[in-house]
Amino acid sequence: MNATTAQQPANAHQGLVTLSVMLATIMQALDTTIANVALPHMQGSMGATQDQVSWVLTSYIVAAAIFMPLTGFLTARLGRKRVFMWSVVGFTITSMLCGAAQNLEQIVLFRLLQGVFGASLVPLSQSVLLDTYPREQHASAMALWGVGVMVGPILGPSLGGWLTEYYNWRWVFYINIPFGVLAWLGLATFVQETPLDRSRRFDLFGFALLSLAIGALQMMLDRGETLDWFASREVVTEAILAGLAFYLFVAHIFTAEQPFIEPGLFKDRNFTVGLLFIFTIGVILLATMALLPPFMQNLMGYPVLDVGLLLAPRGVGTMIAMMTVGKLSGRVDVRYLIFSGLALTSFSLWEMTGFTTDISGWDIVRTGIVQGLGLGFIFVPLSTISFATLAPRYRNEGTALFSLMRNIGSSIGISVVITYLAQRIQINHAAFADAINPFNLALRQAVEAGAFNLSTPQGLAMLDAQVNQQAATLAYLQDFRLMMWVTLAAVPLVVLLRAPAKPAAAEPASKPATAAQAQPAQPAETANAIPPAPPTPGRRLQEYEEEELAA
To answer: Cα torsion for 523, 526, 532, 535, to the nearest 10°?
Structure first.
């Protein structure tokens, strides 16, 4: 059996497989942010406090993070297609139940289940596309996949705000139903099942340790800002649990006979560096999106719909970059593309450090497009090079870890920038307040011009509001500068990546007789037919590796 024969069934319906996978990817990616803008409406509808309604987001994030690493084991034991289809079914049904929920307890429960089923959608979609396309087309495949992963969270708030404003908050969940139905039909019809490995046992202890580490970390990040971080006993306890459980998990996977995650994954340098890289990209992707909407609404006075419209071009920039990368694949070293993406992203964040409350909408759109271009130039080449040298048997686990690191990076990034914002507002306010004294020439001129009347409570309140606004504006700019330094800190990682060897696609074509002579005992009609599944999973996994090496 040669590589061409093995890929023939998948290649026969590449476009339809890609469409089905993209529907599932977009459905899950949208749900990471689409419900954010609907929270105030949910809060009023269900009579919940702001802290209580935040569990609508927390339950989904924690459940998805805990169950995402389980993807590799489930696909090995049950088959990738079967797991993918059931995940789509479960995600669609729980989305419908979220929309029909009548109280806070119901929607939190259904969101938790939605996170359980949605955890494997993105890693499985990436794994399917990597196996569907030959190695030389992996960059194009990752460009298509990246459109859903990167653009979904960016467009989610805009779509969620529009649906909430003109229909009802329940439609942010109901919109998943047509996506889910079409995705399931496509997966059932065009995606092929993978071989099973029933000899693999479930490492319950390893899964429990990793789940405890991820769950405690997510809870710490979610609750830290509300509880004043390490001044709270709860946050300290969660931090200790996360650190201890992660240490025990690392020790366990390197000593157990059949660990939950195989250590062989981390022997591949590109994949290991790629995990660090995608963590950084996760920080930048959603942290910036967490800062801009409140900056535009609270300080610049934009309504929520206008905020969504002005942020949408960021996704357009990402799509343009991803399509460009797909065309450049095989012609330009992907490391140069990643470096260019980091440079564009850093430049856009540097420009954002000069924002004021008087900037135009075009300034927001322009910097958003540049940042979207930068993230697009990073994400697709990084996804390609991270899996370029990874053995095929590790792909399901590898894609799950890749998505998990991106999500954890986003959670940490959001928590860091929000905390830093609150701290800088207080520090800036104190610094500006020190300048409010009778010896301040600018203040005296403002009072003489009639801008402030410091002899009345109303005048003092106006002055304090002005100080608050300036302190908050500067704090946002300091946050953008912090994000710029985080981006620049990722530049040295480019040097650690190794360019994959170019596949020798022309050599088999120039020596057809040699390829035919290599299998003299195989009849012509058998060589062109789709081979049946081999009798043992171990033999199938070995053949997968041989096919990848041959490609």
So the answer is: 0
How does pLDDT run across 297-319, given as a tens digit for each residue? 788 888 767 777 787 788 788 87
* Calpha distance 360→482 (Å, rounded): 23
Residue 540 has pLDDT above 80, yes or no: no
The label of the residue with tokens 């990752």 reads: 142
Share of the chain above pLDDT 70, in %: 80
H-type helices in 225-360, by residue range? 233-253, 269-294, 304-328, 334-352
Contact indicator for 70, 120 with CB cutoff of 8 Å: yes
Helix, strand, coil share of the chain (percent; to 5): 80, 0, 20
**The pTM is what?**
0.71
Cα→Cα distances 436→141, 422, 433, Å: 58, 22, 5
Question: Which tokens in the block code for residue 13?
Answer: 């319906």
Out of 217-221, 225-229, 459-463, which region has the weakest mean confidence (pLDDT)? 459-463
Q: Please state which of the ranges 3-12, 346-355, 390-399 shows the lowest mean pLDDT.
A: 3-12
Burial class (CB within 10 angstroms; exposed 0-12, middle 13-18, buried 19+) of 347? middle
Do 283 and 412 meet the contact criterion of CB atoms below 8 Å apart? yes
| Cα separation, 80 vs 11, whole angstroms | 17
Q: From CA 307, how far away is CA 188, in angstroms rounded?
A: 39
Tell me: the pLDDT tens digits for 362-411? 888 899 899 888 888 888 788 888 887 888 778 778 888 888 888 788 87
Q: What is the pLDDT of residue 90?
A: 93
Please name the residues in contact with 38: beta carbons below 8 A apart, sequence gap of 6 or more: 160, 163, 164, 169, 172
Looking at residue 419, its pLDDT comes to 83
Contact 533, 165 (CB under 8 A): no
Q: What is the pLDDT of residue 224?
A: 78
Distance, in Å, from the CA atom of 486 to the CA atom of 286, rounded to the nearest integer, reads 14
Which whole-number Å values give the CA distances from 148 to 23, 142, 186, in the listed order?
Answer: 8, 10, 17
Print burial letters for 144-172: b (CB count within 10 Å at least 16), e (below 16): bbbbbbbbbbbbbbbbbbbbbbeeebbbb
Contact of 490 with 346, CB cutoff 8 Å: no
What distances in angstroms separate CA 247 from CA 10, 46, 241, 487, one per listed residue? 40, 41, 10, 28
Q: How far apart are the first and last CA of the chain?
A: 13
Query: Are the C-beta atoms of residues 395 and 547 closer than 8 Å to each other?
Result: no
